[in-house]
Amino acid sequence: MFKRAQPSRFSAALCLVLGLAAAPLWAADHAHHGQHGAAPASQSAASVLSDGVLKKADKASGKLTVAHGPLPNGMPAMTMAFPVKEAAWLRQFQPGQKIRFAVDDVAGVMTLVRIEAAK
After folding, report:
1. pLDDT digit string (tens) for 55-106?
2. How would DSSP label each residue in the chain?
3. Cα(102)–Cα(115) distance, rounded to whole angstroms?
4. Residue 44: its pLDDT value, please?
5. Which residues face 67 on adjacent strands?
6. Which residues pair with 115 in a beta bridge?
7. Contact 75, 110 (CB under 8 A)
8. pLDDT for the residue 46
9. CA-to-CA distance for 103 and 112, rounded, in angstroms?
């Protein structure tokens, strides 16, 4: 009768490589399934407030410079100038003031989207 062929090491390796290569495609295609009814990431990021100290309000550039600790988005502690969502904030808050704030990616730029005076 016929002798059954044994799979070669090459074909086993090929199956492994193709399977590993397809995994990221499957994950990307199915990543949204666990998020039904969840708020978009940008909304949840803006709801988490971080502590900081306002260092400078630059009305000409539309930015507030804030000294802050590590942020929820992974940004390390630093002093950084952020564009603001609302121009009125440039007049409302003063250098040296302790604030609570949230930043979010707006058109590829980390922008201050929420701010309040710290208590």
Report:
1. 999 999 999 999 999 999 899 999 999 999 999 999 999 999 999 999 999 9
2. -PPPPPPPHHHHHHHHHHHHHHHHHHHHHHGGGGGTTPPPHHHHHHHS-EEEEEEEEETTTTEEEEEE---TTSPPSEEEEEEBS-TTHHHHS-TT-EEEEEEEEETTEEEEEEEEE--
3. 7
4. 52
5. 53, 79
6. 101
7. yes
8. 63
9. 4
What are the structure tokens assigned to 14, written together? 């090929």
* Average pLDDT value for the chain: 78
As given in the structure block, the two tokens for residue 77 are 């502690």
CATH architecture of 41-117: Beta Barrel (2.40)
* Tokens 């016929």 -> residue: 2
Other beta carbons within 10 Å of 105: 13
